[in-house]
Fold this sequence. Notes:
11 helices; 27% helix; disordered C terminus; single chain
Amino acid sequence: MTPSAASMMPDYTGCTVDGRYELVRILGSGTYGVVYQAVDVRSPSSGDHASRAVKMIRKAGRKPSELAAARREIALHRLVSDHPNVVTVHDAYEDDDYFYIVMDLCRGGDLFDPICRRIYVDNDALLRKAFISLIDAVEACHSSRVYHRDLKPENILVSEDRAEIYLADFGMATNRPRVEEFYCGTAAYMSPECIGHLSGYKPYSTPYSDVWALGVIFVNMISGRNPWERATLDDPCFIQFIENPDFLFDVLPISEGANDIIRRAFVLNPAARITLPALRQAVLDLDTFFRYEDELSVITGYTQSTAPTLAYPQPHADAAIDSAKVLSDGLADVGSVVGAKSAVPVVPDLSMRASCHPTLPVPEFPGFGSGSSGSSTSSRSSSPASSLIVTPEATAVTLPSLEANVGEVACDDRRALGSRIGLSLTDLNV
Length: 430
């Protein structure tokens, strides 16, 4: 096990950073850094208005590329930091030993906790307000040519009433609309083209991949569950969705309208996915995200929990620091997630793990390799001098407008089904 930064760095509690931020207590520690609760001693206000979170990232033992990635992370974060639904970065600088990132202190915790506690279930108004604020944050990032690439509940903070969302952790963000960095992010939230198996590992669109991740989070918030472990042909739940586009509607208590939104987000062709403005409008227009009580009895296997389930997290300090989760009461409850009992192996090192009911058939696809069992990681350290700003490239990408939907590909022979799926993405060259 990799030692935490707290065990390798001095305890700076009681010290003052830059003559301004007095470090009050450690909130969490990860591999390369420690997050402190701090007080801005120069603030004319007191209490919460003077509270900050200071993330200290050690430089010792880091490669030049990792240090560069840290500077890029904070630079991109600062580009969108003024949006009300993005965690604000107040200061960022470095010395010979550390990077220092001064951010808002968010007392509501991250989105993972209310999802696990099913705070949004059967609460249309609360879910709508929260998810709309998340869409607004992502759309603002895209408008500034910042593409997050690791959207998941652990990287999203919430207000104390859980109605507002604040996007955080830009450790994997990029300003490139097309990339060829595969398996970047967290497996359950990766689009098929990000994983790369179905697309022939061709360059893909980062904004469209963010939309896919939003679809997964949408399922999380409505049901407290993941749709699948990963969007590959060796995942039984994803296969169920491919063969039956109403699979999630059949096993989860979601409304027809919510199911329609989910299907539009999970379109195999990235260019044909629902756009962020259309997603926002669809969420606003929908009367309810949930199945009515008298309709629940028709859900296939609902009481047996046939769809993937989210388990409550176990303590894991690395996840806390890596996602820059800044909680007023510490980070002991936030971290890695243990999947529910299942016949399907749980992928290691995922921050949110899915499992399928043992009775779900596991289809065989001769000729197709198994999916990767890990997710790529980036340096989670962040920090630049205030003057370091990455200017996004003014690159326009024109993608074909095809209409292939993963749930609309019909074929009796499973080998042919897989071949058609792979061909459709390969031909797109996105």
